[in-house]
Amino acid sequence: MGQTIRLVGRVIGRPVRAEDVEPLTWALAQAGESLSGAEYLEAVALHQLVGRAVGALHAGGVDLILTPTVGEKAPPLGSFDDTGPDPFTALKRSEK
């Protein structure tokens, strides 16, 4: 996310500021900036491992993995508001 924010800054000719994007987008970009190269590569490796595991399922004869779209009744509008003191609250809420 941080790389994307920097790229957008180059396109618009100035650094992107927090007020230019949604609070969660800014928080994710800031969190990404705090990761080391080793942590990034570890995350990429985990992503690839999961991809290979799903690929192996399909290669082993599994044609379809069926999962529920949501595990609960649709939440009311505003449940994922990211404008509060902790923008990650909305993201954590979506993981339930």
Descriptive terms for the model:
single chain, 96 residues, mainly alpha, 4 helices, flat
Helical content class: 40-55%
The total of beta strands comes to 0
Return the string of H and E elements: HHHH
Q: Would you identify the regions where 5 or more consecutive residues have pLDDT less than 50?
A: none
End-to-end gap: 23 Å
Biggest β-sheet strands, sense, barrel: none
Which percent band covers the strand fraction?
A: under 5%
Residue-averaged pLDDT: 87
What is the rounded Rg?
A: 18 Å
Query: Structural class, judged by helices and strands?
Result: mainly alpha
In DSSP terms, counting alpha (H) and pi (I) runs of 4 or more, how many helices? 4
Large-scale geometry: flat
